């Protein structure tokens, strides 16, 4: 049995989810001759100790102690503002790093982190979990196999059932950076093309406090790819029907939709249509439960050198460039060209 020790920094909502997923995938990894041990830390020490005890994991009092304990990989699930320093700490320790998106609060702050990773031959996987969702994987396969023909339209949708706390939204960077960045990433990944221009509009018809902290609760972006293909990316915080994430791809031969299943948060206006009949997802964690587990299994394989990086920091920053352009367009009311990477 090959042992892999993962160190987890941050045991808030996302951190606890990752910790539970590490435990959940350990059985399948055991069948491959791999055993994962979890160690964790958080500045909220009492809470972290309780989480560790509940998971049978070891608690360490600091990031430095966690790394010094001999972990093989570092999982970062803390607030965005701490990502750069923690990524650097893992890279400097010479261990692979998994970090929730984004790399930093904005693209400008991400660039020095990318330089540090490259200069030190760091291995860093960023958490864009949709790349592991079965529907998106099948859509990419079908497109690459030529089954869809050439794509003429794409429509990406991400809808939260209810908004997160306003305190979070005040520091999230805006709806496009926090939410739609996942759509921007998956569209680049699936098509293999760059988004070069964004024109965005938004509205606030829910809690006025969301507008007061500088955000919108609903937004739509018209995007243009480098080959002229157009698409839309929409998001809302108030989809009472359930958590709804879909991607519609219309091609010259065939059209398919990711996220169209019995749990889709939608109902037909036509008579006699019972589909979908299942209970819609309530949260993103439910919608992407298996994708999150596969993502963490992929990180274990990355730690062991068994696979290529499924989502590089450069990939994540490219998606963030599009999100930045969308936020700028939202504020200015005019189309914005996406800034190109200079290195």
Automatic annotation (TrEMBL):
Q: Which residues form the signal peptide?
A: none
Matching SUPFAM superfamilies, A to Z? Answer: Glyceraldehyde-3-phosphate dehydrogenase-like, C-terminal domain (SSF55347), NAD(P)-binding Rossmann-fold domains (SSF51735)
Q: Domain of life of the organism in this record?
A: Bacteria
Annotated Gfo/Idh/MocA-like oxidoreductase N-terminal domain residues: 7-128
The answer to whether the entry has keyword Oxidoreductase is: yes
Query: Where does the Gfo/Idh/MocA-like oxidoreductase C-terminal domain start and stop, copy by copy?
Result: 145-337
Keyword entries, A-Z: Oxidoreductase
Q: Which Pfam families match?
A: GFO_IDH_MocA, GFO_IDH_MocA_C
Q: Which family does it belong to?
A: Belongs to the Gfo/Idh/MocA family.
Stated name of the protein: Gfo/Idh/MocA family oxidoreductase
Query: What is the scientific name of the source organism?
Result: Arthrobacter ramosus
């Amino acid at each position: 049995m090959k042992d892999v020790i993962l160190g987890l920094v941050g045991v808030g909502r996302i951190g606890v989810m990752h910790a539970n997923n590490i435990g959940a995938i350990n059985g399948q990894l055991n069948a491959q001759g791999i055993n994962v041990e979890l160690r964790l830390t958080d500045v909220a020490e009492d809470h972290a100790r309780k989480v560790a005890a509940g998971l049978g994991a070891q608690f360490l009092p600091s990031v430095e102690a966690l790394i010094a304990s001999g972990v093989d990989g570092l999982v970062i699930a803390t607030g965005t503002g701490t990502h750069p320093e923690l990524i650097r700490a893992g890279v400097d320790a010479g261990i692979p790093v998994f970090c929730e998106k984004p790399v930093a609060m904005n693209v400008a702050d991400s660039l020095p982190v990318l330089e540090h990773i490259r200069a030190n031959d760091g291995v860093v996987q960023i958490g864009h979990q949709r790349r592991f969702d079965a529907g998106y994987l099948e859509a990419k396969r079908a497109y690459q196999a030529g089954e869809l023909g050439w794509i003429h339209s794409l429509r990406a949708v991400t809808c939260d059932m209810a908004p997160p706390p306003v305190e979070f939204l005040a520091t999230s960077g805006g709806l496009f950076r926090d939410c739609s960045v996942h759509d921007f990433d998956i569209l680049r990944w699936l098509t293999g093309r760059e988004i070069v221009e964004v024109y965005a509009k938004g509205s606030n018809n829910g809690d006025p406090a969301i507008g007061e902290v500088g955000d919108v609760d609903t937004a739509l972006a018209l995007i243009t790819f480098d080959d002229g293909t157009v698409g839309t990316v929409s998001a809302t915080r108030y989809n009472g029907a359930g958590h709804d994430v879909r991607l519609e791809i219309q091609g010259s031969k065939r059209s398919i939709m990711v996220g169209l299943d019995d749990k889709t948060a939608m109902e037909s206006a036509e008579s006699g249509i019972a589909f979908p009949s299942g209970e819609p997802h309530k949260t993103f964690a439910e919608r992407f439960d298996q994708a999150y587990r596969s993502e963490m299994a992929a990180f274990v394989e990355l730690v062991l050198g068994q696979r290529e990086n499924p989502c590089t920091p450069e990939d994540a920053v490219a998606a963030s460039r599009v999100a930045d352009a969308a936020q700028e367009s939202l504020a200015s009311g005019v189309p914005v060209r996406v800034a190109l990477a200079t290195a």
